[in-house]
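agent: user wants the full assembly modeled, not chains individually. Plan: 1) parse entity lines 2) check alphabet per entity 3) run joint structure prediction 4) return tokens. Steps 1-2 passed, four entities, 476 residues total. Proceeding.
--- entities ---
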Amino acid sequence: MSLGALRPSSLVDQATRRLREQITSGEWPVGTRLPGETTLAKELGVGRSTVREAVRALSGAGLVQTRQGAGVFVVATEPAEDWPARLRRAAVVHVYEVRTLVEVQAARLAAERRTDADIAALHEALAGRRAAAAGDDAAFVDADIALHAAVVAAAHNPVLTDLFAEFVPALRQGLIDLVDLLGLRHGDGNPGDDTHAALVRAVERGDAGEARRTLQGELDHTLALLREAAQAAGSAGP
Amino acid sequence: MSLGALRPSSLVDQATRRLREQITSGEWPVGTRLPGETTLAKELGVGRSTVREAVRALSGAGLVQTRQGAGVFVVATEPAEDWPARLRRAAVVHVYEVRTLVEVQAARLAAERRTDADIAALHEALAGRRAAAAGDDAAFVDADIALHAAVVAAAHNPVLTDLFAEFVPALRQGLIDLVDLLGLRHGDGNPGDDTHAALVRAVERGDAGEARRTLQGELDHTLALLREAAQAAGSAGP
DNA sequence: ACACCTCAGCTCCTCAGACAACCTGAGAGG
DNA sequence: CCTCTCAGGTTGTCTGAGGAGCTGAGGTGT
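--- prediction returned ---
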């Protein structure tokens, strides 16, 4: 129930809010050097350590950056966009489209850079996907995503790996819904197993073009299913 | 050029890292009460104010929450996905590689979906880039990014637009450094103007393949420059 | 004229100590 | 069983001190 704070928030919180407002309102654009600790303390009517902690909170949020001897600088004006929340709000089709676009190129890079360890991981993930075909929807989707994640990991680009990881939760839910909605996989044996095996083989051979085409084909197919499902469901958004 | 930190990070940063690890590793799951400030100070071998600031940084990042008189509690185990910070830490080459990979596909989509309004915006951005060629480095880079952003916007996928926006700050700094480092543009007139014009024409004509190839060529060229610069600078990563 | 060095003044960083405000749980009392 | 009281531990805040680092002004040498 939470009746809300009866007591005014702490001085540090108040100071943090005041500073944040200066930044988000555009009063202090990116690059601005904040006034010194002692100055801020006097202006805000609080102690120096209070100001330090407020600045530290903003630093943790990624809004400012401190440099010893130089000062505190604004490095961002927005509260570090919450991607998971943003992806939850976005249409599944849009999320999936971007996923396709990222992953297809990742497959190309993977074919060029895969190591022996990557190949072993890919075969293991492929086997895991086959095994999970008999399990429930969630387990199958997880195994499927694990295989795709292994492909992305083989591209050896940490930013790319992070980016894909960001999409996984939204992807997982979307795929579970899709599998459930279309009654896929039940009676179909192990849909896409041959395609996935072909993808792994292409990456293993180092055939970038084939890896790209194979994955593009698979994802386009799923994307088409998603579009159909979205049309069939009409405007049934959350 | 940023030769990376020669000096070990501050004690507060180290303490923050240590505490964050305890949380993200699962050692301290959600709901855990952290040891008291004095205890932590003794365990980490730092002063109480240092611990307080570290906790405040985590609080700003949304990982913990403090309650006066009660203690500090873990409220989330994920680093509250801070992409700007993550991108700042990442190598420029990796960031740029992902940017290429995303944007090239975006160009393809843009060619298929652009509206009349998009075309007008593209021409305006192209003109802006030409005008800014006479200005300073930052202004030119901004105009260049604006053109690329217009291409991405023409793909009409909000997730994609958001994603590109996330990359802009890191991209901007990287490009400014590159232009500054290589002395590009000075005496070169307006480098890449013909390529950019060709890209806009391809999108306008709806020629997806040509748009993709043109942009891929341009970005690969810049990526090659970045790799050279990184090699020339030796191992100067943060 | 240009590059390099020196240095004073400013900034953030860290610590220790003190006191206030507050929460929690144990125990006394009804 | 409920309520009240209270002691101990916790976070909140301030102050003073010294250390480390950056920056720009000014001098020096080429």
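agent: reporting back. Chain A touches chain B through 42 residues (CB under 8 Å). Residues 17 and 54 of chain A are 8 Å apart (CA to CA).
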